[in-house]
Amino acid sequence: MPAESLEDLFLIELKDVYDTEHRLLGALDELSQQTTQEEAQQAFEEHREETEQHIRNLEQAFQALGEEPEREECEGIQGMIEETEEFFEEKEPAEQVANRYAIGAAQKTERYEITAYENMLQWAQEADMDREIIEAIEANLADEQSALRDLQRMAEEFDYQQIVAV
Ligand SMILES: [Fe+2]
Ligand SMILES: [Fe+2]
């Protein structure tokens, strides 16, 4: 079916981000396994729980639109996840290098999600969609922004002395 309206565009992006969130469950598990830094590990685990809620919020949005929840392969996030897996498999990172990399990898996914949700929120508002839909997207966006802020702080406070070449 050709995409002709803002509602069509919203639904396409909704299916995409519904897939993104599912893939991130596994990705956050992987990141938490690859890191030895307790604070980051905890952040990944907490955000994984939030991600489960994001999935439920998106299901609410599908329902409010009268649509069955459906995943459409998000190649963007899949690429990011593969890149991260390859890094850990192929680069034999030292412990603190792996720790810092994991924070950066998570930051990238948050930025990706934030952009998707910012657009969707704008489209939902422009198309005057139900309050329920707008609130679902707003809730997810707020969590992603807060997750990104936490990661940015961890990146700033990281003990770089451990990985600076001498
Ligand atoms: Fe999310
Ligand atoms: Fe996220």
Automatic annotation (TrEMBL):
Keyword annotations: Coiled coil
UniProt feature coiled coil, ranges: 37-68
Annotated InterPro entries: DUF892_YciF-like, Ferritin-like, Ferritin-like_SF, YciF
Database matches in SUPFAM superfamilies: Ferritin-like
Pfam families the record matches: DUF892
Protein name: Ferritin-like metal-binding protein YciE
Species: Halomicrobium zhouii
